[in-house]
Amino acid sequence: MPWPAQNRDFTAHVTATQNPDTKVITVDAPSVSGLVPNKDGITRLKNQ
Fold first, then answer.
1. Burial, 10: exposed, middle or buried (Cβ in 10 Å; 0-12, 13-18, 19+)?
2. Which InterPro entries does the record associate with it (predicted)?
3. If you ran DSSP here, which 8-state letter would residue 40 be given?
4. Which of 31, 8, 27, 3 is nearest to 16 (CA)?
5. Which residues contact 2 (CB under 8 A, 6 or more apart)?
6. CA-CA distance, 24 to 9, in Å (whole number)?
7. How far is 40 from 38, CA to CA, in rounded Å?
8. pTM for this one?
9. Which residues does residue 26 pair with via DSSP β-bridges, in sequence order?
10. What b/e sequence results for 15-44 when a residue is b if at least 16 CB atoms lie within 10 Å of its CB, and e otherwise?
11. pLDDT over 90, % of the chain
12. Which residues in 1-48 belong to E strands, given as ranges?
């Protein structure tokens, strides 16, 4: 990627639920550490 951007990644546990009455779909994707090993040259984003 060109400057000032750099390669980034993150791991997340994604769940989707649907309210049966309203049919609204909610997606929750919190970041999770330790699922995938870090890669050289890529900065891992994480929750603060």
1. middle
2. START-like_dom_sf
3. T
4. 27
5. none
6. 29
7. 7
8. 0.60
9. 17
10. eeeeeeeeeeeeeeeeeeeeeeeeeeeeee
11. 44
12. 8-9, 15-18, 25-28, 43-44
Q: How far apart are CA 18 and CA 16, in angstroms?
A: 7
pLDDT at 2: 65
Cβ-Cβ contacts under 8 Å for 47 (sequence gap 6 or more)? 30, 31
Task: Round to whole Å and give the CA distance between 22 and 17.
Answer: 12
How many residues in total does the chain contain? 48
Tokens 């999770």 sit at which residue? 32
pLDDT at residue 28 in the model: 96
